[in-house]
Amino acid sequence: MSRTGVADGIHWELHGRDDGPAVLFASGLGGGAGFWRPQIAAFAGRYRVVLYDHRGTGRSGRVLPADWAGVASLARDALCVADHLGLERFDVVGHAAGGLAGLWLARHHAARIGRLVVVNGWGAPDRHIARCFEARLALLRLAGPLAYVRAQALFLYPPEWISAHDDLLAASEAALAAELPDVPVMERRIRALLDFDMSGALGAIATPSLIMASRDDMLVPPACAAHLAHALPQASLHITPWGGHGFCHIAPGPFNAAVQAFLSA
After folding, report:
1. Strand, coil or helix: 8
2. 66-91 as b/e, with b when 16 or more CB fall inside 10 Å?
């Protein structure tokens, strides 16, 4: 079963079993549902797999409304999709920005969230992350979308993977640059991530959580995941040794197995 649709300007996809537990996959800064393609087949046999393009990205409305309020709005848009699909309760698997939205949902709509997986996330601002985003924004403003996309791989993937897949990356760069949100949208989305701070509220989140990271993540230090797991009352920590910021995308087998074991526990 696969369906697509739009909820208040947000493009969604539904895959898998009509009668299965619902798992909403929330992407990171790129915002596109396509990031989770390596997860669809692995999860669709048992779950209702919900994917969506963040507002302002992909096939969703490409303009952020004036009252868009950062991570809170990211979370409310995820909830909008869940409401549109009639999901009373669902699990969340969120990567970076999507993980922050998952934390917000677990804090403010705990009754709706069964289990939460935060991949390469954080609970409070981090200067290393800020420096990376500042450099990426400068590239986008001064050198344009193609330079931004070419540099993006350096933040997402391990060096040896980039070396082995340079032709694949090069072949996709022009299309990715053309699909990139406008600079004002990217600036607002990045600022939302840098302003996110739930450090004072993490102890109140009782949702069973799996906090995942890669030891060689160039963008989000794995120490952020360790701090987050320590602060959450019902969290376990899973650090993979390799795969960079996009390890769930380029090494999906171990990632899928760990998430499935947690969701079915």
Report:
1. coil
2. eebebbbbbbbbbbbbbeebebeebb
Question: How deeply is 108 buried, as exposed, middle or buried, from its count of CB atoms within 10 A (0-12, 13-18, 19+)?
Answer: middle
Q: Which pLDDT belongs to residue 1? A: 77
* Residue range 95-132, pLDDT digits in tens: 999 999 999 999 999 999 999 999 999 999 999 999 99
Closest CA to 104 of 190, 22, 202: 202
Largest CA distance in the chain: 49
Using CA atoms, how far apart are residues 190 and 249, in angstroms rounded to an integer? 21
Q: Distances in Å between the alpha carbon of 149 and those of 135, 138, 146, 153?
A: 12, 12, 5, 7
Neighbouring residues of 154: CB distance < 8 A, sequence distance ≥ 6: 162, 218
| pLDDT (tens digit per residue) in 224-238 | 999 999 999 999 999
Neighbours of 204 (CB within 10 A): 12
